[in-house]
Amino acid sequence: MTRKRRRMMVEAAAAVTVTAVLPEDLMIEILARVRVSNPLQLRCVCKRWKSLVVDPQFVKKHLQKSFSDITDLVSKAMEDMNAFQLQLNYAPALAEQQEDEEEGEEGEEEEEEEEEEDPHSLVNELAQLDNMLVVVRSLKGSLETIKVDVQAIKERVKCLQSFLQIYLKTRVSSSSSFSSSPSSSSPSSSSSSSSSNSHTM
């Protein structure tokens, strides 16, 4: 056996040993301390990940974190919507200002006797169009930001709904199995009592 092959076997054995050192209970304890927005992502890590769903401390911590994150996302969305509203209020004022300037320029042109267009007025009109394009781009960017905020809120709420569904389903199944366990032992006890009675007779 070559030295390289021996080293590879030692490394493989060490990797197996490290994996075997982590039992399921320890992995559950580690996963319970991980701050994730969606606990369903833990399914690929540990087979007993569902035990986290019924753990009161984990459920309480996850609900608090979810509500806090959703509140922060809603606050950010409201701030972006308020900024968008200010932009909407600014856009009509800018348009009215440009209309007043155009009316003033038209009045001055009527007083003039020249029939040819003034190159300076064309430059002013182009500048006004550029300003309007800047406002439109700004409004579009604000709408995209609000869209991203709303999508983030929807995804966070969806993750919370999935978690609560699994939590309720697991709680119901565990409670039903617990309630059915005493009834399953009753037939055996009754049969044992009947057999004892038959022996006495």
Automatic annotation (TrEMBL):
Instruction: Please give the superkingdom of this protein's source.
Output: Eukaryota
Low complexity bias (residue ranges): 173-201
Skewed-composition ranges (Acidic residues): 97-118
Q: Which residues form the F-box domain?
A: 16-62
What PANTHER family does the database record attribute to this sequence? BNACNNG10540D PROTEIN, F-BOX PROTEIN CPR30-LIKE
> What is the recorded name of this protein?
F-box domain-containing protein
Q: Which PROSITE patterns match?
A: FBOX
Q: Where is this region: Disordered?
A: 95-121, 172-201
Q: Name one Pfam family in it.
A: F-box-like
Say which species the protein is native to.
Answer: Phaseolus coccineus
